[in-house]
Amino acid sequence: MQNLSWVEVIVVVTAASNGNLYAGATLPKEDIMAIEAVIFDWAGTTIDYGNQAPVVALQRTFASFGIEGSGAVTQQDLKLDKMSLIHQLLKDDGVRNAALDRFGKISADDIALSLFSAFKRNLLAILPTHAQLKPGVRDLIAYLEANSIPYGTTSGWDADLITDLLPLVAPQGFRPRVNVTVKDTGVDRPDPAMNRLAMAHLGVQHPARTIVFGDTLDDIRAGQAAGANAVGVIEGAGLLGLSKAQWLALPNQDQQALRLQARREYAVAGADLIVNNARDLMRLMQSEASMNQSDAL
Questions:
Q1: Among candidates 74, 106, 102, 105, which has minimal Cα distance to 88?
Q2: What is the pLDDT of residues 118-159, one digit of tens each?
């Protein structure tokens, strides 16, 4: 963050869903209307709990060609663009040999291209089952709209995927004013280019009055590099890589341990604020607005 005079506000909130305590926030000591915009990531932040759709699509793609060995894809792997990830998977001897048996003696580039085309088809096919807004997102959006705070999105996904997503999330109340993808900037996170372009389209005058809300370390780094307030979400984050069912099946002590782990990683990456979910960010914004209104009396 830059350009503004900020104060450190230590906030302790009891999350209504599970009674967990968490703390830590840096917000401007100004009226909440000073926030000029919020920029959301998509998978793992807004939709697709645990960023599972790309993993499922990759598994289906390789399985459809009779190629085993893609099941060990990690969230770390998903930081790569998907063509690079497919090339990486093909470096495994078992995967490469299975691919050669299926495709014959063609180049690795041609194999990767065929797999990538199938991956995109599979991802488009499963999007409707992964497009439900994550817990609290609808509440946060309602708050932003009630306070006339514009919001947009950035994504490492292809523009055509975002085009297909928009009609799926609009009935849920999520209607971003601008959607920026790698195609628009030519560079993915942690480069700040997508955030900067989104801020320009949203009419942001002061990047330090913008919230960038994400679920990976690169989201945080890209927000910081753009001069915005980088906020990391824990539950359903790609950083953890757990589906909702997997998360809910964990004992409370294991959930707490993962929250602490995620909090530490976000903090090292430079997060200004770390929240359990989008609803907690909304509550914090409400609380700060109330305090500022009281100070003004």
A1: 74
A2: 999 999 999 999 999 999 999 999 999 999 999 999 998 889
In CATH, which of 3.40.50.1000, 3.40.50.300, 3.40.50.150, 3.40.50.620 is domain 34-51+132-282? Answer: 3.40.50.1000
Active-site residue set: 41, 82
| Average of per-residue pLDDT across 54-65 | 90
Q: Is the dihedral of CA 207, 177, 54, 238 positive or negative?
A: positive
Cα 216–191–157 angle (5° rounding)?
Answer: 60
Cα 239 to Cα 214: distance, rounded to the nearest angstrom: 10
Contact call for residues 209 and 199 (beta carbons, < 8 A): no
Compute the distance between CA of residue 284 and CA of residue 72 in angstroms, rounded to an integer: 37
Strands 179-181 and 21-27: unpaired
Domain edges within the chain: 34-51+132-282, 53-129
Cα–Cα dist 235/266, whole Å: 13
pTM of the model: 0.85
pLDDT grade for 13, boundaries at 50, 70 and 90: very low
| Six-digit token string for 187 | 């560079």
